[in-house]
Design brief:
Porin, homodimer, mainly beta
């Protein structure tokens, strides 16, 4: 049985397509993929899902398995029509390889991403940390997001994000906050269909919680301008524990910093996104 | 009088040069710049300086002044030979514009950067934060880095980083550490020649402190794999207060998270870089 995430990030090669605007030289690869409704937020598909799809494209161009740092810049909300991925191999060295990808939809670029890959299992690199996963109640004592009825969804009838039928996100309540934070959400997540987390899924999971800032923002649509995910380890099977926090809302922009931990208590990803509260809601 | 930073990030247009590997279509711009020794670290030029140079190139391709989020991936240490910048306009919308740039040196790509710009003075976006600048003693009570003789520089005779003759970095001592951090450095910085900070200088300043992690890393050369800078405000004249911290060293990789505050106590940038302790020292 194919899992939803793998089905929806499967790429079909487009060997004969040259990217619009040039770049058709050595190292260019092209793919197409459909965009399902399964990863929809209050409207468009989740940005983390699009970044995960982009990372699938990047992975085709590099000889290492782990996307240790990936950044996507989002240009417009995605729709549900097919996307084209145009991948450029930039460099492959002994320890790192890098590539770039653009996602085009309906003739317009919706996302550009840059990624560097490595092999986290190969290294003798040192480990050191004093930080701990967030202190969460067990998942069965947390609140499934799909059972929530936040104010923000009330005026979007019938649009409880599809994302929460595919990803079981459970929030720890009451919300805890650390010094200097204006918003924080913590909890657990896993794929509803039983797929275990892996490095390919981390960009999606890094953007799967509701925005922590919704309680304090002056708009309900807070589109991501840029999302960076650092993959710091390969997740063990089971639940991912996560925290997302915002400290600064300035000029309408805010950062959301995420930590993702696996079921053995190891950090597997750090994420940071810049988003904006001034966005117009997509039609 | 031209300031060192402006002299060294000045670009000369190369109107007739097409980027190697394609991309010569609409929207491509090319420039060249020299690389001085003034921004050298223990060997190669500082990565933040290179990102600032890249941002100069990006700025040529967009109609907005503020690089609200910029990410650079570093492929090899820079040398002191001229670089070519190949800039691609990606998109210009009503509120945001994005571009990509590659820096080539001696025929090899050394850096690829992606940036989104906005006009932070234009918005009616809201502000909210409870966070405060780091509690620092005044600059005159902090320790100038150029007077330090760290163990790490002892085996690099005569190579006290040139960077610290151009940027006056002053560290607060003794070092303070917050829960979960393995390393933290805090202090002040400003250009030695009196140039005031601005949004163009923030990518450099975000990488100008010595790596906080040096005390706990198993190597003295910790090259940056990727550096992301979020410009959150335009700095007022005067000293920049900054803190840099590391929480996780895993598989030899670590993040360094920075906060930059201006002299009026406002946050002007957040930075995060991924670096590696396993790097070979450049010759």
């Amino acid at each position: 049985m194919a899992y939803a995430f793998d089905e929806d990030t499967a790429l079909q090669a487009l060997p004969d397509v040259a990217p619009p605007g040039g770049g058709a030289g050595t190292g260019a690869l092209a793919f197409t993929a459909g965009i399902s409704h399964r990863w929809d937020t209050v409207g468009p598909p989740n940005g983390g899902f699009l970044l995960a799809l982009a990372v699938r494209g990047l992975a085709e161009a590099v000889p290492f398995p782990d996307p240790i740092t990936v950044t996507g810049h989002f240009f417009r909300p995605a729709r549900h029509t097919p996307v084209e991925l145009h991948v450029e191999r930039i460099r492959a060295g002994k320890a790192h390889a890098s590539a770039m990808v653009r996602l085009d939809q309906d003739g317009k670029e919706i996302l550009r991403a840059l990624g560097t890959f490595s092999d986290l299992a190969a290294g003798a690199g040192s480990d050191r940390s004093d930080a701990r996963p967030p202190p969460l109640p067990p998942p069965e004592e947390c609140l499934p997001v799909r059972e929530l009825q936040p104010r923000q969804w009330d005026d979007l009838p019938g649009r409880m994000p599809e994302l929460y039928r595919a990803i079981d996100v459970r929030l720890a309540r009451p919300e805890r906050r650390e010094v200097g934070e204006i918003a924080r959400l913590e909890g657990w997540m896993r794929f509803v269909d039983g797929r275990d987390p892996d490095v390919a899924a981390l960009p999606l999971l890094a953007d799967a919680f509701p925005p922590a800032v919704l309680d304090v923002a002056d708009s309900v649509w807070v589109p991501t301008v840029e999302l960076t995910v650092h993959v710091r380890g390969r997740p063990a099977p089971g639940w991912i524990a996560a925290s997302f926090r915002t400290r600064f809302l300035r000029h309408g922009y805010f950062e959301e910093d995420g930590e993702l931990w696996d079921s053995t208590g190891r950090l597997v990803a750090l994420s940071r996104q810049m988003a904006v509260t001034r966005g117009e809601r997509p039609r």
